[in-house]
Amino acid sequence: MKKDKTHIHWYPGHIAKAEKKLKEQLSLVDAVIEVLDARLPLSSCYEDITRLLGQKPRLILLNKSDLTNKAELNKFIKYLEEKTNCPVIPTDAKNSKDLKFIVNKAIELSEPRIQAIMAKGLLRRPARVMVVGMPNVGKSSIINKLTKSSKTKIGAKAGVTRQQQWVRINPQLELLDTPGIIPMKQDDQERAKKLAFVNSISENAYSNEIIAQELLNILNSEQSKIFREYYKLPEKKELTIDNISLERNWLLTGGSTDRERTSVYILRDFRDGKIGKFILDSLEQIQQ
């Protein structure tokens, strides 16, 4: 049977395996850092996060915030804080100015569990935290950012499997260096497309041409204007792969448009922030 290239696919077996792994790791930590893509502050969330994490304290980091409009992002920060009752911090891998603030907040969220342990007569120990999030939202870059000042692995602990490696960030905080992976269901294709726009889904799961055109279709009027200016596309011409291909002279032998090459460039330019700063989610859609 021919694969439907308009549909983005996941595999239930992978999802079940990832959830099992996450739950195993969860028992080892005091708190969780959830990393979201700031360009998709809603769509890069896992809807069943509370089912997986339970009452585990959570810090939400909106990564790649440097690729978004700060004023617009602040609206999503306020919304997420009110909805989740969790602290939300915008960040990016290139900037370390907020590093101390993130570390201190993670320690603060871990304190209740540490106090409970001490109440049982055990000695105080460092806070233990793990990082979770969708693929390619920047979990690894956040871990690297947190550990760049100290990459001392402290190995297995009592009651912890030998495969679990810990990194001491400072005397008060330890990070589980294998990030938990939060998968998502595949029944929301609109969300799936948005995740494909920011490269959070394997390229094997979709067609570049279809996803590039879907990206062009989802843009609001202001965003479309930014795309037109970047590709020097006249207002009278529709914002399509073919028209961008013609304007850039990305043509095949014989003069037909090179749709694949153009699609790859559109997605790459968007993901790298070359075109402009974007947030593709909308609070208005939720409030309707």
Derived structural class: alpha/beta
Count of distinct strands: 6
**Principal-axes shape call:** elongated
Beginning-to-end CA distance, first to last residue: 39 Å
Low-pLDDT regions:
155-162
The sequence of SSEs as H and E is HEHEHEHEHEEHHHHHH
Brief synopsis:
The chain has 288 residues and is an alpha/beta fold.
Key traits:
six-stranded mixed β-sheet; 288 residues; 42% helix; 11 helices; single chain; elongated; 6 strands; alpha/beta
Give an overview in words.
- The protein has a 6-stranded mixed sheet with strand order 3-2-1-4-6-5, with helices on both faces.
- Strand 5 (166-170) and strand 6 form a beta hairpin.
- It is an alpha/beta fold.
- Helix 6 (189-197) packs across helix 7 (208-218) and helix 7 crosses helix 10.
- The chain contains 11 helices and 6 strands.
- The two termini are 39 Å apart.
- 42% of the residues lie in helices and 13% in strands.
